Amino acid sequence: MSDKIRVAVIFGGQSSEHEVSRFSAESVISNINTDKYDVAMIGITKEGRWLPYDGPVGLIGTGEWQALAESQDRPNHALLTAGTAIAESERDNRKIDVVFPVLHGCNGEDGTIQGLLELAGIPYVGCGVLSSSLGMDKAYAKIVFEREGLPQGKYLVYSRKQINREFEKISDDVERVLSYPCFVKPSNAGSSVGVSKVRNAGELGPALQLAAKYDRRILIEEFIDGREIECAVLGNDDPVASTVGEVIPCNEFYDYEAKYLSGDSSQIIIPADLPAEVIERIREYSVRAFKALDCSGLARVDFFVRKADNEVFINEINTMPGFTQISMYSKLWAASGLPYEKLVERLIELALERFEDNKREIDY
Ligand SMILES: Nc1ncnc2c1ncn2[C@@H]1O[C@H](COP(=O)(O)OP(=O)(O)O)[C@@H](O)[C@H]1O
Ligand SMILES: [Mg+2]
User: Fold this and answer.
1) Is the Cβ–Cβ distance between 38 and 7 less than 8 Å?
2) Could you tell me the CA-to-CA distances from 349 to 37, 88, 321, 355 in Å, in that order?
3) Residue-wise over 177-206: b if at least 16 C-beta within 10 A, else e?
4) Is there a contact between 196 and 184 (Cβ–Cβ < 8 Å)?
5) Is the CB of residue 244 less than 8 Å from the CB of residue 271?
6) Domain assignment of residue 363, yes or no
7) Going by DSSP bridges, is the β-strand pair 182-186/98-101 parallel, antiparallel, or unpaired?
8) How far apart are alpha carbons 89 and 7 in whole angstroms?
9) N or C end of the chain, less CB within 10 A?
10) pLDDT over 70 for what percent of the chain?
11) How many CB atoms sit inside 10 A of residue 242's CB?
């Protein structure tokens, strides 16, 4: 019997970042060290069905994997399919040693899959339940950043109900605290879905309604006229920061279209052209943010560096950032001397280490 470590790569998912996840997973699977690891593939359809897959890796990104996987008859009950997919991957009495949930956004990067894997007692790559949920929820991440003393822009948070009932008050608050332009976004979302730049009071209502489609809680933020700088963090208790990179969006801001639809017309520059002292400050803030949320494995921390004076503001943390070979996270590590294959290997090692470290002595 093989003594390779059996890694289940889970991809897709019920998220606006389903497609991105498929491309990230395809990269992971194609670059994993097969002398050391044995890969099982599990796709989650947009409808939430978990499907074990053993066809060509090249059909994951395109989405063609699904028809192949569906051609085998499988149960259609959410919990059952999750369990069945994992059980089927444990074929030939080979248990899954570790899961790599290459899932972005809601239902993947938010602690839900992490909770399922905790219950199943299977080690997994990346952040745990708490850090995943905190990272996904921008309003809560801000509370933790504030407590850690990390600089961030001014913001307001409202519930969907408040938006419908107290619009006048919200409009006054924005005028008084933030003024225009400002940014409106769902607290829990990703890929810039539901994010709007609001230029005047007239645009506020529609922007709030749009954001409220995606979440129960809505953030309104001070506009920061800044460059977008990102930093990759890797590790468990002693995380390290990569160099930093700059994203130059091809649209007015880094919206969904600029992120995924415009080919490669949004540019990535590594290292970012910033004074050494600013780069160091961002790297330090990144590690502090990672630790403050109790992250493990990986996270990409995103900042704005104000154009006028190079002041640094933390924007958000992503606990399962885009993970193709050409994604910012992987490129930052490649530029810092850790190539993609080694990065994947390191993440798996960190997952196994954290699993051991998390064991508690409990007498039932
Ligand atoms: N307060 C802000 N000031 C200026 N630009 C912003 C602000 N908030 C968001 N943006 C723009 O919107 C993009 C998406 O917002 P972000 O909060 O990063 O959400 P997501 O999780 O969807 O990436 C950012 O990359 C940036 O271009
Ligand atoms: Mg972002």
Assistant:
1) yes
2) 11, 24, 18, 10
3) ebeeebbbbbbbbbbbbbbbebeeeebbee
4) yes
5) yes
6) no
7) unpaired
8) 9
9) C
10) 96
11) 26
Judgement on whether residues 188 and 270 belong to the same structural domain of the protein: no
State whether the beta carbon of 62 lies less than 6 angstroms from ligand 1: no
190 CB within 6 A, ligand 1: yes
- β-bridge mates for residue 344, sequence order: none
Q: Where are the beta strands (DSSP E) in 277-324?
A: 297-306, 312-318
Cβ–ligand 1 distance for 192 under 6 Å, the answer: yes
Residues 6, 40: contact at Cβ < 8 Å?
Answer: yes
Asked if residue 281 lies in contact with residue 150, where contact means CB atoms within 8 angstroms, the answer is: no
CA of 192 to the centre of ligand 1 (A): 7
**Higher-confidence residue: 189 or 222?**
222
Which tokens hold the place of 31? 């670059």
Same domain, 270 and 345: yes
Distance 342 CA to ligand 2 centre (A): 26
Instruction: Count up the domains in the chain and report the number.
Output: 3
Structure token digits, residue 360: 């508690």
Q: What would the two tokens of residue 302 be?
A: 């995103």
- Both 178 and 246 in one domain: the answer is no
CA–CA separation, 333 and 113 (whole Å)? 26
Instruction: Write the CATH number for 202.
Output: 3.30.1490.20
In a domain, 364, yes or no: no
| Beta strand spans in 214-273 (E) | 217-222, 226-235, 240-248, 267-269
pLDDT, position 189 = 80
Give the range of the structural domain holding residue 47, as residue numbers without chain letter.
5-124
- Looking at the fold, whether 209 and 260 belong to one and the same domain comes out as no
State the ligand closest to the CA atom of 137: 1
**69-107 confidence digits (pLDDT tens):** 988 767 666 677 788 788 777 776 778 999 999 999 888
pTM of the complete model beyond 0.85: yes
Residue 12 CA to ligand 1 centre (angstroms): 23
Residues 236 and 295 in one domain: yes
